[in-house]
Design goal:
With about 240 residues, the chain is an alpha/beta fold.
Length: about 240
């Protein structure tokens, strides 16, 4: 089951399949597409897993093991790759809240986000090589962008699992939060990014011409939100 909640401009998608360790089945892909559609208009998006043991354990092997032909393998890979592309292309900031272990395809979903926040007791790993396969959903390319080509080859080629702290050291995780305050912690961070400035900053850092960056700033400058905030500052200064 994929759940969607929206609070104060933050849309939260939760992959909640406890019977399958939050693994992604073909039906889960349909539900993710629908949830992303429904999240349109939110200023920020967060993706997490149900419970506190697993973020996403990868593809649901019990179901995906039925795919035996090249065409079936290609179709499945393209289907979930496009969903990860949609996550990455979401207009506002996207946060992966790693509530539990993120392994294989779960790590691929995590790196489709802009920011990864991890509970301090999780592990993350591109361990597809243990099944004699490789990341299929764009994760190898995104991992390379985060940690560089040699580190990406080392991690994905060996299938090594990293602790949250190890992952932060190599740039795979952005912030580690104590388990006892993880839920409040990641929600606070994600909510702080559900703003028009954060959306504009995401657009600019993805790569725009200088004129587009100035235009983004100018639109924020003349917006009512800016002047309301400026008035509050000016009143405190009196």
């Amino acid at each position: 089951m994929v759940k969607l909640e929206t609070v104060d401009g933050l849309a939260v998608i939760t992959i909640d399949r406890p019977e399958a360790r939050n693994a992604i089945a073909l039906s889960t892909m349909d539900e993710l597409d629908e949830a992303i559609d429904a999240a349109a208009g939110a200023r920020a998006l967060a993706i997490t897993g149900g419970g506190d043991r697993v973020f996403v354990s990868g593809g649901d092997l019990k179901e995906l093991a039925k795919l035996r032909t090249l065409d079936e393998a290609r179709a499945m890979a393209w289907r979930m790759r496009r969903i990860c592309d949609r996550i990455s292309a979401f207009p506002g900031p996207v946060v992966a809240a790693l509530n539990g272990h993120a392994l294989g395809g779960g790590a691929e979903v995590a790196v489709a986000a802009d920011i990864r926040l991890a509970a301090d007791d999780i592990t993350i790993g591109f361990n597809q090589s243990s099944l004699a396969i490789m990341p299929a959903w764009g994760g190898a390319e995104r991992l390379t962008t985060l940690v560089g080509p040699s580190q990406a080859l080392l991690l994905a080629g060996s299938g090594r699992k990293l602790s949250a702290e190890e992952a932060m050291k190599v740039g795979l995780v952005d912030q580690v939060i104590e388990r006892s305050r993880f839920d409040d912690g990641w929600r606070t961070v994600a909510q702080s990014l559900a703003t028009a400035p954060a959306t504009a900053i995401k657009k600019v850092i993805r790569g725009v011409e200088p004129g587009e960056a100035v235009e983004e700033f100018a639109h924020l400058w003349v917006a009512d939100e800016h002047w309301a905030a400026a008035d509050r500052v000016l009143k405190r200064a009196k």
